[in-house]
Amino acid sequence: MEELMDIESLKKLTPAQQEQVIAGVKQQAAIANAQNLITDLSEKCTQKCITSPGSSLSNSERQCLQRCMDRFMESWNLVSQTLQKRLQDEASAMPNFGQGGFS
């Protein structure tokens, strides 16, 4: 198991090592985000589309699930893109933001 680093330990790393830590954190956040997305998608669409569970899905249940998943993903992508743009706009408005480093 990886050891958690405090800010003082991070400050002692070289800029390249700091960037590596940041990349690892971003990757872990992306994985957690994808897992949450799949869980939410499964729960919401299953509740909406499958009213009487059985051994197989009816055609209407399949169509409902497909439409639900499509709409959910379209909405999630729109929100994600909007948030990413907002974060980029805010970052570009802040001097020295996003240039790495913890000092």
TrEMBL record:
Presence of the UniProt keyword Disulfide bond in the record: yes
A Pfam family reported for this protein in Swiss-Prot or TrEMBL: zf-Tim10_DDP
Its membrane topology: Peripheral membrane protein
Domain of life: Eukaryota
Gene Ontology BP annotations: protein transport
GO cellular component entries: mitochondrial inner membrane
Keyword 4Fe-4S: no
Span of domain Tim10-like: 25-85
Keywords (A to Z) from UniProt: Chaperone, Disulfide bond, Membrane, Mitochondrion, Mitochondrion inner membrane, Protein transport, Translocation, Transport
Primary residence: mitochondrion
Domain notes: The twin CX3C motif contains 4 conserved Cys residues that form 2 disulfide bonds in the mitochondrial intermembrane space.
Physiological role: Mitochondrial intermembrane chaperone that participates in the import and insertion of some multi-pass transmembrane proteins into the mitochondrial inner membrane. Also required for the transfer of beta-barrel precursors from the TOM complex to the sorting and assembly machinery (SAM complex) of the outer membrane. Acts as a chaperone-like protein that protects the hydrophobic precursors from aggregation and guide them through the mitochondrial intermembrane space.
UniProt similarity note: Belongs to the small Tim family.
Subunit comment: Heterohexamer.
Protein name as annotated: Mitochondrial import inner membrane translocase subunit
Organism: Pristionchus entomophagus
